[in-house]
Each structure stands twice: as C-alpha cells, then as structure tokens.
Amino acid sequence: MFIQNQKERQDIWTETCQVRFADIDCSDRLTVASVFNFFQEAAISHAENLGVGRDSMARTGQVWLLSRMSVLVDRRPQYGETVTVRTWPRGGEKLFAVRDYDIRDAADVPVVRGRSGWLVIDMEKRRPLRPQSIMDNLPQNEGVDALPSGAAGLSQREDLRKTAERAAAYSDLDYNGHVNNVSYIRWIQDALDPKLLENASQMRLDINYLNETLPGDIVQIWTAPVEAGDVVPENFSAFAVEGRRTGDQAVFRAELRLSEK
Q1: Domain end among 152, 183, 200
Q2: Quick one: average pLDDT of 32-39?
Q3: How far is Cα 146 from Cα 58, in angstroms, rounded to an integer?
Q4: Residue that terminates a domain, selected from 85, 118, 152
Q5: In this predicted model, what pLDDT tens digit does every residue of 172-226 receive, in sequence order?
Q6: Reduced to 3 states, what is the DSSP secondary structure of residue 36?
Q7: In this structure, are 127 and 238 located in the same domain?
Q8: Got the DSSP string for 126-177?
Q9: Of 176, 63, 215, 173, residue with least CA distance to 127
Q10: Segments forming the whole domain that contains residue 157
Q11: For residue 117, is pLDDT > 70?
C-alpha cells in the first residue's frame, strides 16, 4: 500500500509503501512480479506528475509503450517491511526514453534496482516516434544511475522447449486492452520451479516486450536453462524464457537469473 507521494513537479519521484500480503510468496518476501508492479505504478505516477501521463499523451495522439526492462534484486524485502520506491527519467537512447528505478530499505540502502526503455507510439499510425521533443522537457538526471547498463535487446535462442501455454484472460489485461507487462512476469514465474523462486535471495530479470497480446490469444511459453559462464555467475541458476503466439511470433523474450546466496 502506497502511503506517501509528492504532488509538485519532481525530478526523482518517491513513494513510501509497505510490502503487502499480495506482494509476497511462501518465503514471506517480495516477488519479482511485485517488483515490476511497484515500478509500473511509480512510473505512471511520475509521468502524470511531469505532465506526460496517459491523458496528456492521448491528447496529442501518443501513448507510452514499455519495450525493455532490467531488474536486479540484491535483497528481497519482507512482508510488512516499509520501503521507498523511486523512479526518474534518465534521458534517451535512439528511439528509447530511458527510466531508472530503485527500492530502498529503512536504512536508505538500495535493495532493488531497475532500468527500462520506453517507446512513444503514434496511436493512429501505430509506429514509434522519436521521443526527443518530450525528453527535452523532462529532467535528465545525468549521473543518477540505478544500473550501469540494462534494458538491452535479447537474442532469439534455438534450444528452447515448450513448457506451458497461457490464454490471455481478463485479469491479464490493462486499459489498452492487451496483456499488461506485469502479467508476462507472472507467466514467467509460473513456468519455472516454484522452489527455485521461493528460495532465491538475489535475482536479475531482463525482458524485451516484442508484440502485443490480445484477449483470447494463446501464448506458448518456451524455456531453456542458461549455462554458467561469462554471462551467468557460477552461483546462479539461469533460464531463458520466450512467449510465442500462434505462428511462432514472439511476444516477449526474457532471461531470469536466481541465487540463494
């Protein structure tokens, strides 16, 4: 439950909240899907605060579309813990408007960090626009980095195997009428061993949102383990996950790394 926010224009948006029962799993700790939900809500609030929220964008025939996101969990906050969620624009990279995030504990230590890449979409032509005219009017927050890098493109893998299938249901949808970005994270969680998720103390999830999923669409979930090496530390378990619509069109592509240490 968010219990504090700010109404004047803010370069860095902050919200204080408690980890709720709905935010945790059997380990009594915040799930990665809940992290994405915290960040989504904070980003929406900050966009409204900066004058580039849903209604303001719609008046100019534009809409924000989340395209990429990376989240690094150093520690999972526990049930009832009070945390501060922060988010801020971080300039642009080509067609992407970059936004960073973190979650800080009561000692002001960042325990979760994230970076996202957003597209500005022309609602009529359904094509991305260059975001520079919008970004020029937003805080740049140079040097304020949640992650040194992130929200990169993920390559298609050839070793994936089908492990699950989901139908896009009412509870998966957002106001745009397509599957919400957080719903995909829940689908990823559900495709993996629950014990791995419950026991994990540290996580990193990178995801690319590639195509929209509409009500009634059937999405096959394909997964594969990722071997330890240059990309995955030895004490981590890692999985590649891809969602495919009928016809093998990818709707999302992700990599999740987990560690009990």
Answers
A1: 152
A2: 98
A3: 29
A4: 152
A5: 999 989 999 999 999 999 999 999 999 999 999 999 999 999 999 999 999 999 8
A6: helix
A7: no
A8: TEEE--HHHHTTS---TT--SSSS--------S--EEEEEEE--GGGB-TTS
A9: 63
A10: 153-261
A11: yes
| Cα(215)–Cα(171) distance, integer angstroms | 10
How much is the pLDDT for 228? 62
CA–CA distances in Å: residue 170 to residues 44, 153, 215, 220: 21, 29, 7, 18
Question: Can you read off the two tokens belonging to residue 99?
Answer: 């936004």
Whole-number average pLDDT of the chain: 93
Q: Are 114 and 86 in contact (CB under 8 A)?
A: no
Note whether 160 and 186 are same-domain residues: yes
Q: pTM for the whole thing?
A: 0.93
Q: How many domains does the chain have?
A: 2
Q: Residue 201 burial by CB count (10 A; 0-12/13-18/19+): exposed, middle or buried? A: middle
Is residue 158 within 8 A of residue 165, CB to CB? The reply is no
Tokens 């937003």 belong to 138
Taking phi over 0 as left and psi of -120 to 50 as alpha, with beta for the rest, 247 belongs to: left
> The domain that contains 176 carries what CATH number?
3.10.129.10
What tens digit of pLDDT does each residue of 141-182 get? 999 999 988 778 899 999 999 999 999 999 999 998 999 999
